[in-house]
Amino acid sequence: MSKDPFGKAVLDFQSNNEPKNIITHSSLAGEDEIPVDYLFRNYKEMPSIEQKALDLSKGKILDVGCGAGSHALYLQNKGKNVTAIDISEGAVEVCKLRGIENASVENIWDYSGEKFDTILILMNGTGICGKLNKLDAFLKHLKSLLKPNGQILIDSSDIIYMFEDENGEYWIDASQGYYGEVVFSMEYKDQKSDEFNWLYVDFNTFQNCANYNGFLCELIEEGEHYDYLARLTVLED
Asked: Residue 164: beta bridge partners?
C-alpha cells in the first residue's frame, strides 16, 4: 500500500476504519477535498453523464480506472460481463470486497490480450492520458482493445472557464502548454502520492484527435459543470 492514499481511503471507508476525505493538490486550483463516500455512490446518486454511460454499456465491458467499483458493481448487478481495472491495489481490493467478480490491478497503458465491446472510462476519463501530446497514442491503444463494432465511452471537462476574468476575457499562457494539463497529487492521513499529470480536454480538440485516429466521435451528453460524455466508434475504411 506504499504511496496509495486513494486505495487506503476507500479501504478505510469499506471497513469503517475512521475514513476521512482525500486531499488533492493541483497546479491549477491548489488544495481541495474528495469526500470518500462519493466514491461509493449508487446509480441514483451519480451524475446524469455517468448514468447515460452505464445505460449505453453493452457486451463485454472494460471499466478503466474503476476506483471503488461503483460503476462496475452496477453493471455486474445488471447481469453485464464487466472487467474492472485500476492501478490502485487498495481500490481493487475494495472492488473484490464489494463482490466484483473480475477486478485486477492493471495499468491501461500496459493492458493487452483481451478485446471488448465497450471500454468505459469515467470521472474525467481523459485524465489518464496525462498530457495532450499523449492523447494520440492513448486513443490508438484503446482502439487495439476494441472488438469489431465496439465503442469507447469517455468523459472529460473543458476547464477554460477557470481562466476567465470578470470581463469575460481568458488569460492563458500558451508557453505553459495546453490549458487543460494539470499536475495533481493526493494525500490521505499519513500517505501522500507522487505528483501525476492529468488531462482535461475540450470536446473540439478531443473530437479532432479522435477523427484523426479513425474514430467517429459523438457528443452524447453535456453536464452541468462544463463536462461531457463522448462515444467513440471505429470508422469503416
From this structure: 170
- The per-residue pLDDT for range 180-202, each reduced to its tens digit, is 999 999 999 989 999 999 999 99
Which residue bears the cell 476494441?
A: 146
Query: Which residue carries 445505460 as its cell?
Result: 55
- Give residue 30's pLDDT: 85
Average of per-residue pLDDT across 16-45: 95
Compute the distance between CA of residue 3 and CA of residue 229 in angstroms, rounded to an integer.
Answer: 31
Bridge partner list, 32:
24
- Examine the pLDDT at 171 and tell me if it is beyond 90: no
What pLDDT is recorded for position 1?
41
The 3-state secondary structure of the chain, one letter per residue: CCCCHHHHHHHHHHCCCCCCCEEEEECCCEEEEECHHHHHCCHHHCCHHHHHHHHHCCCEEEEECCCCCHHHHHHHHCCCEEEEEECCHHHHHHHHHCCCCCEEECCHHHCCCCCEEEEEECCCHHHHHCCHHHHHHHHHHHHHCEEEEEEEEEEEECHHHHHECCCCCECCCHHHCCCCEEEEEEEECCEECCCEEEECCCHHHHHHHHHHCCEEEEEEEECCCCEEEEEEEECCC
**CA-to-CA distance for 232 and 117, rounded, in angstroms?**
12
Cα separation, 23 vs 60, in Å, equals 34
Distances in whole angstroms, Cα of residue 168 to Cα of each of 124, 171, 173, 224, 232: 25, 10, 16, 19, 33
Question: 216-225, pLDDT tens digit by residue?
Answer: 999 999 998 8
